[in-house]
Amino acid sequence: MKQFQGDEEALGKGILYLVATPIGNLEDITLRALRILKEADIIAAEDTRQTLKLLNHFEIKKPLISYYEHNKIEKGNYLINLLLEGKNIALVSDAGTPGISDPGEDLVRLAVENNIPVTMTPGPVAAVMALVLSGLPSGRFAFEGFLPMNKRSRKERLLSLKKETRPMVFYEAPHKLKYTLKDLYDALGNRKIALARELTKKFEEITRCSLEEAVNKYADESPKGEFVLVVEGEDEEKLLIDKKRSWEATSLDEHLQSYVDQGLSRKEAMKRVAGDRGLSKRDIYNSLLPEESQ
Ligand code: SAM
User: Fold this and answer.
1) What CATH number is associated with residue 198?
2) Which of 37, 199, 236, 264 has the fewest C-beta atoms under 10 angstroms from its C-beta?
3) Mean pLDDT (whole number) for 158-170
């Protein structure tokens, strides 16, 4: 296999390949991914039985090592030692891109810490496909993966997303979908949502509707298959108006003083007040004129 050029310290070490695999349709594997899987010394897999199906389909025979959430510390160190001895390792998850809501992140960090070359055969990511098909703006987005299960952390996370203006992409298991839709609706209000179901599979379906409609649809319908949710970000104009409104109850003096108390110069504080209120610096200066000329 090709060694990385120009990195003396990495010489003699193996390469860690993150290999993206299909998220449903076996045709979505790249030629390079197949070559790397064939040429690697070892394949580390999230679920060896699942990966065996993929390998059998492409007639690839390789030693498999399991590497998943609950053995990642022990197996991570083991894999790093093999890489240090010069073995090339391909890491695959059950579906899609390792490291995206799947094991991979820790192994990459360990490899980087040990100056082991890391590369990837890129491929499917359910989040990206759902975002692009959602019809929502895709120039910027926030990938949120799975929301925390713990009630309090979940509430805090949702609260932190209230002012997010980029579309947000969530993963969810079908049996939790209806609760997550309700939580999103309660926290974010009635935004647009795209529900991307069974991507790349026979029953692929994109439902574009409002969060309220989605909550109602799944209130008494059991969802089937895998879902990605893409939720519209907060309207930037609305945020600006809300921000201006929140200052209306505060006098200019108090507003200015709040920045001066934070250690800002009077000039800098006036600039901030002007920005907060959507006014020009001159407007602020004129309104405070009697004080400013003292
Ligand atoms: N590593 C994967 C990736 O690159 O997209 C994600 C793995 S994560 C454990 C599994 C979640 O991804 C599912 O719960 C679902 O939200 C989403 N997902 C995976 N495959 C999907 C598909 N074919 N259609 C819709 N969502 C999918």
Assistant:
1) 3.30.950.10
2) 236
3) 97
